[in-house]
Design a protein that fits this description.
This protein folds into two domains: about 10-105; about 110-180, no CATH class. It contains seven helices and no strands. It has helices at about 10-15, 25-40, 50-65, 75-110, 125-130, 140-155, 170-180. It is elongated and about 70 Å long.
Length: about 180
């Protein structure tokens, strides 16, 4: 546990087994102590997300009170929920923050057109993509290859794209793909 922070395990146990209307501030304060321990132990570098995360963890703990089995330790139950929920929530928040930074950086450069249509460069290949034309081998340009990858990725989420430096056109295509999946 954190130095100077003492958790009353009996109050935690009470919190999990009493009726919702009987929950008092002292119970919530003990749960909050456990949340603080988890956040400081596992996520101290992401302190800017603590308040948002703390609220989400508390909601989750309140929702999962009914699942508690009194045979087990209340502290461990709450600690585990807090650890798992904080990890998931902070991962989500840092991912969103990173995507926001990336989109802001790209938009600030003024080089991104949001009205990108991935199908327009693929018009010569539509018959092949739809299966109407037979082919064994087709030579396509690099630009069309990028658009084709975006098209395939948007229709097959299991397809993986490799990391490397992107040209402006590739960055536009990738940004379009990210926007599509985030909305």
């Amino acid at each position: 546990m954190s130095k100077g922070l003492v958790v009353d395990r009996e109050l935690l146990f009470e919190f999990l087994i009493i009726a919702p209307e009987e929950i008092a501030d002292e119970h919530l304060n003990e749960v909050d102590k456990v949340i603080s321990i988890v956040l400081n132990k596992y996520h101290s570098s992401q302190y800017q997300f603590f308040e948002e995360c703390r609220a989400q963890i508390m909601i989750t703990i309140l929702e999962r009170r009914e699942r508690f089995d009194p045979k087990y330790d209340a502290y461990n139950y709450i600690f585990t929920i807090a650890r798992n929920e904080s990890g998931n929530y902070i991962k989500k928040l840092t991912k969103e923050a990173s995507l926001d930074e990336t989109s802001t950086q790209v938009e600030d450069k003024g080089s991104l057109e949001l009205e990108y249509d991935p199908m327009s460069p693929l018009k010569p290949y539509v018959a092949y993509l739809a299966g109407y034309a037979d082919y064994n081998y087709i030579r396509i340009s690099r630009e069309s290859a990028v658009d084709l990858l975006v098209y395939l990725k948007s229709h097959d989420p299991t397809m993986k794209l490799s990391k490397r430096e992107f040209t402006q056109r590739e960055a536009q295509a990738m940004f379009y793909l990210l926007k599509k999946y985030l909305n």
